[in-house]
């Protein structure tokens, strides 16, 4: 893998498990989209991949296992020993928007989220 890959849910999905239906967004994935708008140079540094909502998310299961298919996930191109880095199936990754933002800020020169 040449670049870090950020996996996000495609916006505007339906969830059959929610009574009454409707179209939804993932709050954390939307926060990541906003972060990428504020720091557009990140799109040159990382690869952004949108996945559909329904599980199992085969791409994530193949990469990180069934227990790690929640999104957002940043799968790292190179091993890292940072405090928020997790490991699965021989890959290093970061889960959740705020830790991902902290990593992107440190690695690629964006601003971190306010504590």
Q: What does this 3D model show about the protein?
A:
With 115 residues, this protein is of the alpha+beta class. It has one domain (5-108). The protein has 4 helices and 7 strands, in the order E-E-E-H-H-E-H-E-E-E-H. It has helices at 27-38, 42-45, 58-64, 97-108, and strands spanning 5-9, 13-14, 23-24, 47-51, 73-75, 86-88, 91-95. It is globular, with a radius of gyration of 14 Å.
Topology:
Blueprint: E1 5-9, E2 13-14, E3 23-24, H1 27-38, H2 42-45, E4 47-51, H3 58-64, E5 73-75, E6 86-88, E7 91-95, H4 97-108
Parallel strand pairs: 1-4
Antiparallel strand pairs: 1-5, 2-3, 5-7, 6-7
Helix pairs in contact: 1-4
Identify low-pLDDT runs: none
Form type: globular
Order of helices and strands: EEEHHEHEEEH
Report, as a whole number of angstroms, the end-to-end distance: 31 Å
If you average the pLDDT, what whole number results?
A: 96
The structural domain count equals: 1
Strand order of the largest sheet: 4-1-5-7-6
User: Quick one: biggest sheet?
Assistant: 5 strands, mixed
Radius of gyration: 14 Å
Tell me how many strands there are.
Answer: 7
SS-derived structural category: alpha+beta
Beta-sheet strand percentage? 15-25%
Helix content: 25-40%
Count of alpha and pi helical runs: 4
